């Protein structure tokens, strides 16, 4: 993108002046990596199933119909070949430059870590971790990719992904750290989220004196309160605004 637009120039200056930046990202962060935003993409998961994504991703559905859940999950939620995009790399760069102190993400794809980011708070968990319901063993993604159907632990127990299902609370420790990061920051950059999904809106409430930048294609309920709104491609904006 043209790195000389007034918005990019403003964002660059804001980044330059800041010492404690926090980035908070949603599904739009990963669309450039080929991971569709399942919420905005389709209303129902396959007409035949007649279920919404929220129902498919609920703890009740997982426990009642693990085979159907895992088929859905493998089909829609797992993208083992996805690679970080220019936006992920720009944020990793900003962390190495000592300015970015934390990434808060609603995504479960692990792409920030792939890009080299260290301090990443995954509010909704990660597809990269899986737990045995029987013995509690924590595993990576390999046991899931290496099996078909409902993946099992060596002990015979059923695996669940370490993601936050609908109907489950967020991890309190992760949320505490995320809130603390937001309270301490002097610049909060929010990107790729409509800010309508819990806990996004709540987290923004912990921002004190920090400047707020919103980068999103569509309007959000927070646009009026932002110091800068950039309506453009998130990956391109971050790449252009973060110094090489
Ligand atoms: Zn086990």
Molecular shape: elongated
Query: How are the strands of the largest sheet arranged?
Result: 5-4-1-9-10-11
- The CATH superfamily name of the largest domain is TPP-binding domain
Rg, Å, rounded: 19 Å
Q: The CATH topology of the largest domain is what? A: Rossmann fold
How many structural units, i.e. domains?
Answer: 3
Major sheet characteristics: 6 strands, parallel
Q: CATH class of the largest domain, anyone? A: Alpha Beta
Mean pLDDT: 92
Q: Indicate the structural class.
A: alpha/beta
Number of strands: 11
Beta-strand content bin: 15-25%
Q: What small molecules are bound in this structure?
A: zinc ion
* CATH architecture classification name of the largest domain: 3-Layer(aba) Sandwich
End-to-end gap: 15 Å
- Give me the strand/helix succession: HEHHEEHHHHEHEEEHEHEHEEH
Put simply, the count of helices is 12
3D structure, described in words:
This protein has 3 domains: 6-35 and 81-124 and 169-241, Rossmann fold (3-Layer(aba) Sandwich), CATH 3.40.50.1220; 36-78; 127-163, no CATH class. It contains 12 helices and 11 strands. The protein has helices spanning 6-17, 28-31, 38-41, 53-56, 59-64, 66-77, 86-96, 111-115, 142-145, 172-184, 200-204, 234-241, and strands at 21-25, 44-45, 51-52, 100-105, 120-122, 125-132, 138-139, 159-163, 187-191, 211-215, 228-230. Strands 5-4-1-9-10-11 form a 6-stranded parallel β-sheet, sandwiched between helices. A 3-stranded antiparallel β-sheet has the order 7-6-8. It is elongated, with a radius of gyration of 19 Å. The protein starts with 5 loop residues before the first helix and ends with a helix. The mean pLDDT is 92. The structure holds zinc ion.
């Amino acid at each position: 993108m043209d790195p000389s637009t007034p918005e990019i120039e403003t964002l660059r200056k804001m980044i330059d002046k800041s010492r404690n930046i926090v980035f908070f990202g949603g599904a739009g962060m990963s669309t450039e990596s080929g991971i569709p935003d399942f919420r905005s993409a389709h209303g129902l998961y396959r007409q035949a199933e007649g279920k919404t994504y929220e129902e498919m991703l609920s703890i009740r559905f997982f426990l009642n119909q693990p085979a159907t859940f895992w088929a859905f999950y493998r089909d829609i939620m797992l993208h083992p070949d996805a690679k970080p995009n220019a936006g992920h790399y720009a944020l990793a760069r900003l962390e190495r430059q000592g300015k970015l102190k934390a990434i808060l993400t609603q995504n479960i794809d692990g792409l920030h870590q792939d890009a080299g980011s260290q301090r990443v708070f995954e509010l909704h968990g990660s597809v990269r971790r899986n737990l045995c319901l029987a013995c509690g063993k924590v595993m990576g993604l390999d046991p899931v990719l290496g099996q078909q159907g409902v993946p099992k632990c060596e002990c015979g127990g059923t695996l669940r992904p370490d993601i936050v299902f609908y109907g489950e609370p967020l991890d309190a420790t992760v949320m505490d750290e995320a809130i603390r990061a937001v309270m301490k920051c002097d610049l909060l950059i929010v990107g790729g989220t409509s800010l309508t999904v819990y806990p996004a809106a709540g987290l923004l409430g912990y921002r004190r004196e920090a400047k707020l930048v919103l980068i999103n294609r569509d309007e959000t309920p927070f646009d009026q309160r932002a110091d800068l709104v950039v309506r453009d491609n998130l990956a391109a904006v971050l790449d252009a605004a973060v110094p090489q």
